Structure formats: structure tokens, C-alpha cells
Amino acid sequence: MAVYVVMEPPAPAADAMLVRDGFHLFGFLTPPIWLLWHRMWIEAIVAFAVAMVLAALGEALDAGLAGTLLSLLVSIYVGIEGAALRLAALRRRGWREWGVVEADSFGDAEARYLFDAAPAGLEEVASPPPARHPIAPAHRSGPALGLFNYPGKP
């Protein structure tokens, strides 16, 4: 099962966004392009600059394969932390976290969110509602080694 963080926009007329938590393959393969696709301009510039600096450092030290692997660190970071970067960018734009939904696919996660977010006046269906895990308040101890805290995890 995949875990999706549901982000609700500041304007009530807009649609909510579901962000899958986990490794992002395209974020790993092409970090700056993936970041630009998700409208994270500053993160894309920083990722590109850090990759270039690490590649130049490996070239200046004549590290060979180690220099290439050193520049691969940016790809690994964006692949692993891509969801946290997207959530942080959405929070900066005023979006708020509604909760977390577990589902087998994106469509199932969307259906579970819509079921849980439905107004109370609608008729109840025969099956019980799926579990919704509210996000616990994050401890503000600061990031460790530059990694972001995930919502709901202390």
C-alpha cells in the first residue's frame, strides 16, 4: 500500500492535491527537470548548482569514478526526499495538510479522500469508511543533516 499526503489549497474552490510518499524514480533520473515539472524553481536551481559544483570538485580533484558518484548524490537526495520537497513547497504557498490516506493506487486514494471529506449531510454507504490517519503536529527540533521531517513522524 502506498501512503498519500492530502494537501488542501488556500482557495476552497480549487482541488486538493495528493502527494505520494516514497521514492520518485523520475526525481532520481532527472532531478532538475522533475523539480521544474512540479514548479519548485528554487529547489531546481539549487539541485543543478550543487550537482555542477560536485562534478567540478570531482574533476578538480581528478577523482575519476568517485567524482561521478559524488555528483550522483543530488539525484539520490531528490529521489528519496522528493515528496518532502513537494510538501514543503506547497506549505510555503499556503496549502495545508488534510491528512494521510493509504491506498493501493492513486485512484483509490482519491476516492478515499473524497469519501472522508464529504459533507456530513450525505447518506451513509453500507461499508465502513476507510481509516484516515491525521497528521500529528511535527516536532520543531529542526532537520537532521538537511533532511526534512515527514508529517506524522516525530
- Work out the helix count: 5
Encode the helix/strand succession as letters: EEHHHHEH
CA-atom Rg in angstroms: 19 Å
Task: Report the strand count.
Answer: 3
Shape: elongated
Could you say which structural class the secondary elements and strand pairing correspond to?
A: alpha+beta
Strand order of the largest sheet: 2-1-3
User: Average pLDDT value?
Assistant: 81
How much helicity do the residues have? 40-55%
Question: Which segments are poorly predicted (pLDDT under 50) over 5 or more consecutive residues?
Answer: none
Task: Describe the largest sheet.
Answer: 3 strands, antiparallel
Distance between the termini: 21 Å
As a percent range, the share of strand residues is 5-15%
Structural account:
With 154 residues, this protein is an alpha+beta fold. Helix content is 46%, strand content 13%. It has helices at 25-29, 31-37, 41-60, 65-92, 106-116, and strands at residues 2-8, 17-21, 96-103. A 3-stranded antiparallel sheet has the order 2-1-3, sandwiched between helices. Strand 1 (2-8) and strand 2 form a beta hairpin. Helix 2 packs antiparallel against helix 3 (41-60) and helix 3 runs antiparallel to helix 4. The protein is elongated. The two termini are 21 Å apart. The model has no long low-confidence stretch (mean pLDDT 81).
